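Postdoc handover notes: sequence design on the structure in folder B. Input tokens:
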């Protein structure tokens, strides 16, 4: 009996030893598989080239921004975190199937939060001496939304790069003679956008390349943390990736699908006979074919003396206009800059105490008229609507940016008028300012009114449509397109 017990104990010990060996071998193999999987992802060209973009373009940009200092330090911190978040997102996307909309929205939240923070920081620091730098970044940063653009993510990046160019040119103009560091800063920012465009065109031509390197469910793919763009060698490690989405998302999606199916079933259950009792409207009663009927409807009062159909030309109420123009109205001299902002329905705005070094900056004013007396350095109108400005003389230029329905009258002279992203801008020149130059971009409904001998004005439209030809196979020649009516 003792012999049997000893043999059973020996057999149990051998089984336990074998179990420990198998467990150890399984853990070791799983660890090796995980390490190999991570290394494989890092060796993929689609990931390596994004890492190269960060090392060759982003890090030098962060370094020179920190050298300039000021508000750029905070701004580039946001840019660095945006690149980190997008790199980590791409690691998962190329290994995963495209998730449901709600899960995708949660996955890109770190990126969208940084983009929103960059825009908010720029708007909050409009009086910063580096405002043009901040604007160049905030105008170009929506390019990083290419991950949601299909089927043309490349052109989307180009559009955002063109938008940033306006403020980049301002930086070059302001610091060209002062500090070459700022010119190098502009080159590096442009390089980032161009390199991002090239990367997207190469690997994501018609949209984000979901599941190009695997078919896993999103959230289960390898998403090991990446190194921060501007982190030092001795810094703490970045936080781990977020956990996989909870099963609750699947239940929510299933519930939404069931509700959608129930809705479609109820609609289909009505059958084709649902429209059987509807009468056909004859052509003589259709308003889009008979304008006179529409005009009668516009002027026909209802029982309570209110228009039955709102007039198309009805102007918005003061409260509606005020809600669109949020902010405290202001008209004040700060240093050498007159700040005029958030003025609504003011026809008596006037600036009389001016000097040649003063700049006038109007921001988000609506339905106003302003008179600027004396000679000033420059005038800028930004995001204004239905504003008329009359000024005596300007040393450099008057500029309209993102405006609508604007009018300007020159009493003496202005050398340059610049119109950017503006719909509706009518300029009245004086007889002493007929050599004024106009620079226009992405604008429409522009005209120049020139005084005649009888004291009247003759209107000349500014071209909006152009024709470009290759001359002698060597260079381009651009002229206004005659068919556009200009």
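Designed sequence:
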């Amino acid at each position: 009996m003792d012999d049997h017990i000893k043999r059973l104990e020996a057999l149990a010990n051998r089984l336990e030893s074998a179990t420990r060996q198998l467990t150890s071998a399984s853990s070791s193999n799983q660890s090796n598989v995980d390490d190999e999987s991570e290394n494989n992802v890092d060796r993929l060209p689609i990931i390596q080239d994004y890492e190269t973009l960060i090392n060759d373009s982003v890090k030098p940009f962060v370094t020179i921004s920190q050298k300039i200092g000021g508000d750029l330090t905070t701004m580039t911190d946001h840019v660095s975190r945006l690149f980190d978040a997008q790199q980590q997102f791409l690691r998962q996307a190329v290994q995963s199937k495209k998730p449901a909309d709600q899960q995708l929205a949660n996955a890109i939240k770190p990126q969208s939060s940084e983009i929103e923070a960059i825009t908010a920081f720029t708007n909050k620091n409009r009086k910063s001496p580096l405002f043009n730098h901040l604007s160049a970044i905030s105008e170009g940063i929506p390019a990083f939304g290419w991950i949601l653009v299909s089927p043309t993510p490349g052109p989307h990046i180009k559009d955002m790069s063109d938008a940033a160019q306006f403020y980049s040119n301002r930086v070059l103009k302001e610091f060209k003679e002062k500090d070459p560091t700022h010119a190098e800063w502009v080159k590096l920012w442009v390089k980032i956008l161009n390199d991002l465009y090239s990367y997207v065109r190469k690997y994501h031509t018609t949209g984000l390349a979901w599941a190009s390197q695997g078919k896993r469910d999103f959230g289960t793919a390898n998403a090991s943390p990446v190194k921060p763009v501007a982190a030092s060698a001795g810094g703490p490690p970045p936080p781990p990736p977020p956990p996989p989405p909870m099963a609750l998302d699947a239940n929510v999606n299933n519930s939404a699908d069931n509700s959608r199916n129930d809705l479609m079933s109820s609609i289909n259950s009505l059958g084709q006979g649902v429209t059987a009792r509807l009468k056909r409207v004859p052509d003589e009663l259709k308003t889009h074919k008979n304008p006179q009927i529409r005009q009668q409807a516009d002027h026909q009062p209802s029982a309570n003396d209110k228009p039955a159909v709102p007039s198309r030309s009805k102007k918005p109420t003061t409260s509606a206009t005020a809600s669109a123009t949020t902010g405290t109205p202001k008209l004040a001299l700060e240093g050498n800059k007159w700040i005029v902002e958030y003025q609504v329905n003011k026809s008596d705005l006037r600036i009389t105490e001016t000097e040649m070094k003063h700049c006038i900056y109007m921001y988000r004013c609506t339905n106003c008229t302003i008179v600027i007396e004396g000679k000033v350095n420059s005038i800028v109108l930004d995001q204004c609507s239905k504003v008329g400005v009359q000024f005596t003389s300007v040393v450099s230029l008057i500029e309209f940016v993102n405006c609508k329905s604007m009018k300007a009258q020159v009493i003496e002279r202005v050398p340059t008028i610049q119109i950017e992203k503006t719909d509706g801008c009518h300029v009245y020149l004086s007889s002493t300012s007929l050599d004024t130059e106009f620079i226009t971009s992405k604008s429409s409904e522009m005209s120049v009114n020139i005084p005649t001998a009888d004291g009247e004005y003759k209107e000349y439209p500014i071209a909006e449509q152009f024709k470009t030809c290759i001359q002698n196979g060597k260079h381009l020649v651009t002229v206004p397109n005659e068919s556009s009516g200009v």
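Context for whoever picks this up: Residues 29-36, 231-237, 245-250, 301-324 have pLDDT under 50 and may be disordered. Don't rerun without checking with the PI first.
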